[in-house]
UniProtKB/TrEMBL annotation:
This is Chalcone-flavonone isomerase family protein. GO terms for molecular function: fatty acid binding; intramolecular lyase activity. Gene3D superfamilies: 1.10.890.20, 3.50.70.10. Belongs to the chalcone isomerase family. It comes from the Eukaryota. It holds the Pfam family Chalcone.
Length: 213
């Protein structure tokens, strides 16, 4: 990973946000391992503004299921959608930790996320619409201050936990999203062919290349 840090944490270099190298989250029976970090930049009036840093974690068993990719380079991993499909389909926990690096209104944050999620769901069902409504309601009218942590945790491919905290790792779940289309769309937002944070996917691919060799 193109980052620096210590045995306990990794620093995302563009935002200087620290991410723990292992994490224990509410709803996950096992600790998760950090695979990479990156940042999200949004353009406002032609100026690129860094909105948040992100780190991707996975249960060690997810990594163990990727043995057929041993020896692959980072570039090969990054360009192989089947590897990321395997990570998503693994029936165990993966989590995206978002750390805001500037104050953001909750509605603005959701609108930007929904702008990426909704086009990826071609024919939303009533289950999808309900899941998106639940997802939206978490952020509406909620000020998100710099330093706020948002955890999006896939406990299995069709179920995702959303946890928000302004004071360290959260101990409660704010919402449960149960829709395969929505959870897959969100994963694709970050690890599909056109990720919203290219730096995160590159870093995770680098991290996987290291642990698989």
């Amino acid at each position: 990973m193109d980052v620096v840090g210590s045995a306990e944490y990794i620093v995302e270099p563009t935002t200087d946000v620290k991410f723990q190298t292992s994490l224990n989250l509410h709803g996950c029976p096992n600790s998760l391992v950090l695979l990479g970090t990156g940042f999200r930049e949004k353009v406002f009036a032609i100026i690129g503004v860094k909105v948040y840093a992100a780190g991707f974690y996975a249960n060690q068993s997810v990594i163990d299921k990727l043995s057929s990719w041993k020896g692959k380079t980072s570039a090969e991993i990054q360009g192989d959608s089947s590897l990321y499909d395997s990570i998503f389909q693994a029936p165990t926990e993966k989590s995206l930790q978002i750390v805001l690096v500037r104050d953001v209104d909750g509605k603005t944050f959701w609108d930007a996320l929904d702008e990426a999620i909704s086009p990826r769901i071609k024919a939303p069902t009533s289950v999808d619409e309900s899941a998106l409504s639940t997802f939206r309601s978490i952020f509406q009218g909620r000020p998100l201050k710099k330093g706020t942590l948002i955890f999006l945790t896939w406990v299995d491919p069709s179920k995702m936990l959303v946890c928000i905290s302004s004071d360290g790792v959260p101990s409660t779940v704010d919402a449960t999203i149960e829709s395969m289309n929505v959870t897959l769309a969100l994963f694709d937002v970050f690890f599909g062919d056109t990720p919203v944070s290219p730096s995160l996917k590159t870093s995770v691919s680098n991290g996987l290349a290291v642990v698989l060799n």
